[in-house]
Structure formats: structure tokens, C-alpha cells
Amino acid sequence: MSAAVVLMAYGSPERLDDVPAYYADIRGGRPVAPEHLADLVDRYRRLGIESANPLNAITEETRAALERELGLPVFTGMKHWTPRIADAAERALAGGAGTVVGLVLAPHYSRLSIAGYRDQLERALDGRAELVFVESWHDDDGFVGFLADRIRGTRAHVVFTAHSLPARILDEGDPYRDQLLETSRLVAEAAGVDDWSFSFQSESPTGEPWLGPDILDHLAELRAGGCEDVLVCPVGFVSDHLEIRWDIDTEAQARARELGMRLQRIEMPNAEPRFVRVLAEIVRGALAPVAASR
Ligand code: FEC
Prior knowledge:
The chain is 48% helix and 15% strand.
């Protein structure tokens, strides 16, 4: 069996000049409010992304390490930036892949997130290879164990976080929130941590209600309950995204300071060898039934 992996990520602008096109892609043709664009450019500027983005280098490092670990070709495909998911699919096909494993660098399924990655990959492959798509890996033992080791022994209250989504997903029976709570519970249990809670982060100004509580409000509630020390564990992200470096390290940190709290966060998995081995096991698990059926 000739297999290849398309490793998918949200994508991040490579330089400041890319931000308008990147944001337009996220909006998918819907209007972009000039003040929201200016705010986004400002956030990337303040993170020092003028002419190069370290996040894209981390994704490439992860890809290369996963390729070495698996001994299979791995191609990176971005949902909202380059290299595109479609480019990655073409490269996998050009290399002779008969089976393509689609793995997203986001562990939790939502119709508003993972389904979009799947759709792009399916359309690009267009039946030219068998697609084995990993829908979610939120309860993967390796992933849970990895995060548990990050929080084990802490005396702080642990706040698990993930990207918010429009609240209407709950009416649509979307499993996103349940999967997030499941990861949080499993990680806390594995680490022997009893003192924890969950909150969302990174809500966008789209004019409709989003899932809450938002971490900024949640910190105030925790403080009102007497909590002074918080460890943030962003279970919905695996890299040093804008959402981590800005929303947690800058905004939530400022809120915690205002409230007189100490806020720390776990190191993100990024391209850490143990995390790459977790991803490799997920790919092997996805390929096992295919190999067995041959
Ligand atoms: O450069 C970076 O590191 C940022 C990468 C990035 C990640 C990410 C993850 C998720 N998002 C999800 C949902 C939405 C929805 C909207 C939305 C908007 C943005 C904007 C930027 C952005 N997202 Fe994102 N997201 C990242 C970046 N996201 C930039 C636009 C400006 C802003 O609102 O701050 C609203 C779209 C709209 O306007 O209609 C919905 C979800 C995830 C986690 C799953 C995943 O990674 O795919 C869900 C990383």
C-alpha cells in the first residue's frame, strides 16, 4: 500500500502584508470590517510578525519530524493560507499515494471547523486516492497523557480552554463542546487534578452569540470565588498560535494582573518529539484497518 499523510493546519500569514488576504480567506467572501482588519494587523504586528512567522516554521518542523517517524511522505496543507490543502493533496497524488490519511492539527470535531478541512481535502482528491480522514483525536491516550504530564503536580486551579464557536452549533447537535469537556476531564483524571474548570477563548466579533464563558469573564468569576493562581491548559490548540500568544499570553495575562491573580500556561506541544510520536500513533491507528483489509 502506498500511503501519504496530508497534515492540515489553520494557517497563519507569513508576513504582515499577507494579513488582509488571510482575513478575507477566513471570512470566505463575507465583508471584512476595516476596524476588525486593522485590529488583526495590529495584533500580528505586536507579536513581531513583520516579515516572517515562527508558527509556520513550527508547522514545517512538525511535518518533517512526522515524516521521519512514520517513514511515509507527509505534506502540509493549510485551511486559510499556503501551502493549501489542495496543493498538499496534489503532491501526495504526484508521489503515487493510493491512500491519503488526512490529519488536522486540531483535536476536536466541529462541523464549523474539521468538516471544512475534510471538505477541502475530499474535493482536491476527487476520488483519485482512498481517503482515510481522522475526524477527531480528542480522547487519544497519547494526547491525554501528554497534556496530563504538563499539569501534574500543579497547585494552581487549572483552566482548560479552546476556541469558541457560534452558540448555534449546540442546537445543531455538534459534538465540539462535549469533546472539549471530555478531553479536559480525561486529562485532569490522568493527572490526578481535582481543581479545574473549562472556558472558551478567542471569540470573533461576528454579531451572533458565541459559546461561553469567555476566559476573561471566567477569570473574574474565579477571582471572586477566592482563586489567586491559575494554570491555563489550551486543549483546543497544539501550537503557539495568535490565540495563545495574544489571547492568553497578552490579554488573559493582563486581565489576571488586573484581578491580582497569577496566570501561567503550559508549553504548547508544537513540534516536541513526544507529541510527534502521538501524531504518528494516530496515523498508524487510522491506517491499520486499511492494511488489515488488504
Ligand atoms: O496565526 C495564527 O496563529 C492564528 C491561527 C488561527 C487558529 C484558529 C483556530 C480556530 N478558529 C476557529 C474558528 C473561527 C471562527 C472565526 C475565526 C476567526 C479567526 C480570525 C483569525 C483566526 N480565526 Fe479561527 N483561528 C485562527 C485565526 N476562527 C485571525 C479572524 C480574526 C479574529 O476574529 O480574530 C470567525 C470567522 C468569521 O469571521 O466568520 C468561527 C476554530 C479554531 C480551532 C480549530 C482549528 O484550529 O481549526 C474552531 C489556529
